[in-house]
Every structure is written in structure tokens, then in C-alpha cells.
């Protein structure tokens, strides 16, 4: 299966009539493996900051998580595995796998829990597959 199919078929799947606003699979080096057409254009330093928070949990909390110039307030996650952020009625979930970051961005009426489930389920699957 292509990386784009993982984004299109798994990350952008419908859950209770809702789906993510944008999604991507990005290598630890910031390279795009696959993304939705709506995924924001991000800066390399934004991915560097996210990777640093996985290595040193809590580094994003004071400044927020930035992606595509949008600032998300960092909320509870799983240190070293998942970062979650909130902005207004939406938010972001980032799951780290061995080689990539699985990123999902949502807006109401999708809930944070639905976003977490979609992103983390694919991330867990890819971890099991060695990615």
C-alpha cells in the first residue's frame, strides 16, 4: 500500500460522519511521505521542535506547538509517543512511530477523542510493521 493510501483511506476515513480536516505522514527528517491536499505548508523548524518534544517531553508546553504557522496549546499526551494540541474548536494529534510522524488536524464537530483514535490507531499499526 502506498503512503498516500494510508492518508486517504485511514487518516481521512469517516468516523460517526466526521473526518479529519487535514492529515499527513512525515519522516523524522521533515520530509513528506504523504499528505492530504488541505495539510498546511509547514516550516522545517516546526518539525524539529516536535521531534525535540518527543525526545525531551514538555519542551513545547511553554511555547505551544506550531504547524504551518498555526499555534496549538499543548494538552495531555503520552510522553515520547503522542503530542496533542488544541486551538479553538479544533486541534492536532501527532503520533511518533519508529520512522515517521502521523499527524491529524481536526475541527468541530469532530471530537479530540475521534482524532486521537484515528491517528494513534494508524501509528500503532505502523509501529507493529516496523515503521
From TrEMBL:
Instruction: Give the record's keywords alphabetically.
Output: Actin-binding, Cytoplasm, Cytoskeleton, Disulfide bond
| GO cellular component terms, semicolon-separated | cell cortex; cytoskeleton
Q: Which Gene3D superfamilies match?
A: Dynein light chain 2a, cytoplasmic
Query: Is-annotated flag, keyword Endoplasmic reticulum?
Result: no
* GO MF term list: actin monomer binding; proline-rich region binding
Question: Which InterPro entries does UniProt cross-reference here?
Answer: PFN, PFN_euk, PFN_sf, Profilin_CS
Q: Name one GO biological process term.
A: regulation of actin cytoskeleton organization
Q: Which SUPFAM superfamilies match?
A: Profilin (actin-binding protein)
- What PANTHER family does the annotation carry? PROFILIN, PROFILIN LP04
How does this protein assemble?
A: Occurs in many kinds of cells as a complex with monomeric actin in a 1:1 ratio.
What does the UniProt function comment say about this protein? Binds to actin and affects the structure of the cytoskeleton. At high concentrations, profilin prevents the polymerization of actin, whereas it enhances it at low concentrations.
Q: Could you say which protein family the record assigns here? A: Belongs to the profilin family.
Instruction: Spell out the protein name for this chain.
Output: Profilin
Amino acid at each position: 500500500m502506498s503512503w498516500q493510501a494510508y492518508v486517504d483511506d485511514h487518516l481521512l476515513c469517516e468516523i460517526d460522519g466526521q473526518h479529519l480536516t487535514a492529515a499527513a505522514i512525515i519522516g523524522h527528517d521533515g520530509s513528506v511521505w504523504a499528505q492530504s491536499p488541505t495539510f498546511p505548508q509547514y516550516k522545517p523548524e516546526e518539525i524539529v521542535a516536535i521531534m525535540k518534544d518527543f525526545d525531551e517531553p514538555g519542551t513545547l508546553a511553554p511555547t505551544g506547538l506550531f504547524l504551518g504557522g498555526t499555534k496549538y496549546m499543548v494538552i495531555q499526551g503520552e510522553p515520547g509517543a503522542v503530542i496533542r494540541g488544541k486551538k479553538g474548536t479544533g486541534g492536532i494529534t501527532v503520533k511518533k512511530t519508529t520512522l515517521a510522524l502521523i499527524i491529524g488536524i481536526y475541527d468541530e464537530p469532530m471530537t479530540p477523542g475521534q482524532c486521537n483514535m484515528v491517528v494513534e490507531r494508524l501509528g500503532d499499526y505502523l509501529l507493529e510493521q516496523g515503521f
